[in-house]
UniProtKB/TrEMBL annotation:
Residues of the Calcineurin-like phosphoesterase domain: 142-308
Biological process according to GO: lipid A biosynthetic process
UniProt cross-references to Gene3D superfamilies, sorted A to Z: 3.60.21.10
Keyword Membrane: yes
CDD domains linked to this entry: MPP_YkuE_C
TM spans (from-to): 28-49, 61-87, 99-116
Keywords assigned by UniProt, alphabetized: Hydrolase, Membrane, Metal-binding, Transmembrane, Transmembrane helix
Protein name: Metallophosphoesterase
Pfam (any one): Metallophos
GO CC annotation: membrane
Statement: the UniProt record of this protein carries the keyword ATP-binding: no
Length: 368
C-alpha cells in the first residue's frame, strides 16, 4: 500500500506534465522524470516512517504534505486528460503543452491556497435549527461546535488558542467537540489541546471520541478532556436546564471503538434514564450513525468526520461511505443531522474547496 498509492498518484501527473509535452525526449523530460522518481522514492518512505511503528513526527509532516500535493496534481491531471481529448477533437494541434502548463499552474495555485485554508483560523458558520418539542425557555440556545481538530505532528498551539478565542467570542451556551481531537498520545499532543480548557460555556462543554482516538489512546483522551473540565459523553447523556425548560444532550462512541473493551457506540445505553418527552441532541462522530439516531427518535445529530472532503474532489469518495458530506439535512422520523466540515485537518495540510468551520447552531422550537 505504501508503494501502490504513490505509484497511482504520480503516474498520471508524470504522463501529463512530463512525457506528453516532451515526447519522452530532451532535457525537460529527464529533469521531470528525475523529480517524479525522487517523489516516488520519498513518499512511501516518509509515510512508513511517519505512520508506521516509528511514528516519526518529521516524517509525518513530509509524507502527509507530499501526499496532499500528489493528490492535487493527480486530480487536475485527470481533468487535463479530458481537456486534451476535447482539444484534439476540435482540431487543436499538439494540445499536450498548453494542457501541461494549465495543469501545472492550476495545481500549484490550489496547493498554495489549500495550505493557507488549512492553517487559517476557521470561519464561523451560523445555522438556525428548528427542533421539534423544544420548549420556549430554550429558544435561541447557542451550541458552538468544533470537531476534527486533529492535533498532530505540526505544532498548532497558537492556532488552538485563536480557535478558543473565537469560540468564546461567540458566547456559547453549550460547547461541543464532536471527535477526532488529536492524532497521537496525550503525552505528545496535550500542549496543543490545553487551550480548550479555557472555553467558557455556562450549560456545559461536551466531548465524544472519534475514530482517530481509537488509533491511539482513546481512554487517555477521555480522561484528559475530563481533567480540562469537559464532560466526555461515553455512551451517556446529560439533562440541561435553562429558564426552567430542559433538553437532553447525549453522546456515543465512534464505531471504531468496538475493538476496545468497554467502548463502541451504544445509543440505548446513552439514553437510559432520559425523559422520553424531551428533545435529544446527539453527538455522534460519523454521519452514518444517523440510522441509529432515527430509530431512537433523536431530534438532532451533530457529526464531523468527513472534513467536507478536505481536498477536492475527494468528497466524491467520502460520499460512498457517508450519507452526508456537509451541512444540515433532514432524515426519516424528522431527525435532523448537522455534519461539520471540521475545524482542523487530517494528514495533508491542505483544504481545497472544503473550508474549515467553527459552527454555531442556534436552536429554535419547530413551528407546529
Amino acid at each position: 500500500m505504501f508503494v501502490l498509492i504513490p505509484a497511482l498518484l504520480l503516474a498520471l501527473p508524470w504522463w501529463t506534465l512530463v512525457w506528453a509535452p516532451t515526447g519522452g525526449t530532451g532535457t525537460l523530460f529527464w529533469i521531470g522524470t528525475a523529480v517524479v522518481a525522487a517523489l516516488f522514492a520519498c513518499l512511501p518512505v516518509a509515510m512508513f516512517l511517519g505512520h508506521g511503528p516509528a511514528q516519526s513526527d518529521p516524517a509525518v509532516i513530509v509524507g502527509d504534505a507530499l501526499l496532499g500535493v500528489s493528490w492535487v496534481f493527480f486530480a487536475w491531471s485527470v481533468i487535463g486528460v479530458f481537456v486534451r481529448g476535447a482539444l484534439t477533437v476540435i482540431g487543436v494541434d499538439d494540445p499536450a503543452r498548453p494542457v501541461a502548463a494549465g495543469v501545472a499552474i492550476t495545481a500549484l495555485a490550489l496547493t498554495g491556497w489549500g495550505v493557507y485554508e488549512a492553517r487559517r483560523v476557521p470561519r464561523v458558520r451560523t445555522v438556525d435549527v428548528a427542533i421539534r418539542g423544544l420548549a420556549p425557555g430554550l429558544d435561541g440556545l447557542r451550541m458552538v461546535v468544533v470537531t476534527d481538530t486533529h492535533y498532530a505532528a505540526l505544532n498548532r498551539v497558537r492556532w488552538s488558542e485563536k480557535v478558543v478565542d473565537v469560540v468564546n467570542s461567540l458566547e456559547p451556551d453549550i460547547a461541543c467537540h464532536a471527535g477526532d481531537l488529536a492524532d497521537g498520545s496525550v503525552e505528545k499532543r496535550q500542549t496543543q489541546v490545553d487551550p480548550l480548557g479555557k472555553v467558557v460555556a455556562p450549560l456545559g462543554r461536551f466531548y465524544i471520541t472519534g475514530n482517530h482516538e481509537y488509533f491511539g489512546d482513546a481512554q487517555g483522551w477521555i480522561d484528559y478532556m475530563a481533567a480540562l473540565g469537559w464532560q466526555p459523553l461515553h455512551n451517556e447523556h446529560r439533562t440541561l436546564t435553562r429558564d426552567g425548560d430542559r433538553l437532553v444532550i447525549a453522546g456515543i462512541d465512534d464505531p471504531t471503538g468496538r475493538g476496545l473493551p468497554g467502548h463502541g457506540p451504544d445509543l440505548p445505553a446513552a439514553l437510559t434514564g432520559a425523559d422520553p418527552d424531551l428533545p435529544v441532541v446527539l453527538l455522534a462522530h460519523q454521519p452514518k450513525q444517523i440510522a441509529d439516531a432515527v430509530a431512537a427518535g433523536v431530534a438532532l445529530q451533530i457529526s464531523g468526520h468527513t472534513h467536507g472532503g478536505q481536498i477536492w474532489p475527494f468528497h466524491y469518495l467520502v460520499r460512498l461511505d457517508q450519507p452526508v458530506v456537509a451541512g444540515l439535512s433532514r432524515h426519516a422520523n424528522n431527525t435532523q443531522l448537522y455534519t461539520s466540515r471540521g475545524t482542523g485537518f487530517w494528514g495533508p495540510p491542505l483544504r481545497v474547496f472544503a473550508p474549515s468551520e467553527i459552527t454555531v447552531l442556534v436552536l429554535h422550537p419547530e413551528p407546529a
